[in-house]
Amino acid sequence: MNKKTLLLIGFIIFKFVLQYSLISSDYDLQRDEYLHLDQAHHLAWGYQSVPPFTSWISYIIFLLGNSVFWVKFFPALFGALTIVVVWKSIEELKGSLFALILGATCVFFSALLRLNTLYQPNSFDVLCWTTFYFILIKYVNTENTKWLFIAAMVFAFGFLNKYNIVFLIIGLIPSIVLTEQRKIFGQPKLYVALVLGLLLITPNLFWQYNNNFPVIHHLKELAATQLVYVDRLDFLKSQLFVFIGSFFVILSGWLALLLYKPFHKYRFFFWSIIFTLVVFMYFKAKDYYAIGLYPIYISFGSVYLADKLKEGWKMYLKPVLILLPLLFFIPMYKIDFPNKSPEYIIKHAKEYEKYRKNRWEDGKDYPLPQDFADMLGWKELAVKVDSVAATLPDLEHTLILCDNYGQTGAINYYTKNKKVIAHSFNADYINWLPLDMKIKDVILVKEDNDEDKERKTEIPLFDTVYLASKRINKFAREPEISIYVLRGAKVDVNKRIKDEMERKKNYDD
The whole model's pTM is what? Predict the structure, then answer.
């Protein structure tokens, strides 16, 4: 085993060790993670929230025991593989050992550390973007058409993971047209590869069609509730901080694509970042949507800088470039990760406010960063629901109905009572409601901002309605959650559920 391989293995091991140390035991899983994990029990070719790839990984996690260790393992794995792909890209670009170390360090100590703490589609999305760009480099170097077919498969898996990868193609096509690599459009096998990619994503497209394209509704809702608060200039500014310790390397790589003769044949990458960022800004995308753009430019920048700093006094700048990502990571470590207790964050609020970490998707400021608040109170909620459920005599005919997917997924993940399965009209759960179940009693889990706190709406429908418990956590995104019990249904609850499902779907349309 040579020195390069040993170094790469060292980066990978350190990556896993650090990822597991970045989350304090004060926190539970994040709201979205519970929904993704529940998809393992409802495998399909699509979901309202995401394409199907995440559900496949969730099923693997379920088979492995569904522990937090495995939940966190896969985003860490995708982050480690991103380092490997950047490493291989540098090798393909004929980079030196210094270039390899610089590139791996830049990717390691970046926003990917935060991204890779969460079990969401984003980590695999970045890996797919980076791999797709690496395959383009391989094709340009060899003109071997097998790489076109591999690119089609990478795109397909990226698409089945997160539709965000479509922006890669949108930014790439005009970039290729502007350069000598436009000759690729005259390659017949390109179109065969396109057909292959289309065939691979067809099951998901059929699912979208058969379900009236929920992705369109999801995008409209996202635009109305979250993207409306996105400022295009702020989006551009935030790109500086994604790889802030590596910004000089990325900038060097981008400019080298214009000025450095060995990179002339890759010049379409220079235009690609411009076109892709413009498209993201036009659609008012969230800042992290563009993270997948940058790792490949770290590859170009590392090779270019290694070549320019190999002689004379410039050689002494090499350790500085390697240290920069680490130095910038130190303040990131203090505020970007849920490695401090909520009490600590509240006590040091000014530090977080300075970097706008407490700004949520609705454009308002709160005591904790949104993701951190979304990781609190879930286990406690499940324990309280279990306690309430234990007081009821007939759980086989008891429906647990929650306000949102976070409550639902958390109860299903943490519950110790295997007869307890939570449901909701929210997100993907609306398609998983037990329509064939004879319902006698209902456990209702409601946010405390619910207007009908006395449950006056349900009183005529059940023999008994009462508040059984409350989960109170002042740091959580939902500070108070009430747990009601509705005993002895006087009406056909199943019919009510079907009517509500129809109303909900019609409203969404």
Answer: 0.91
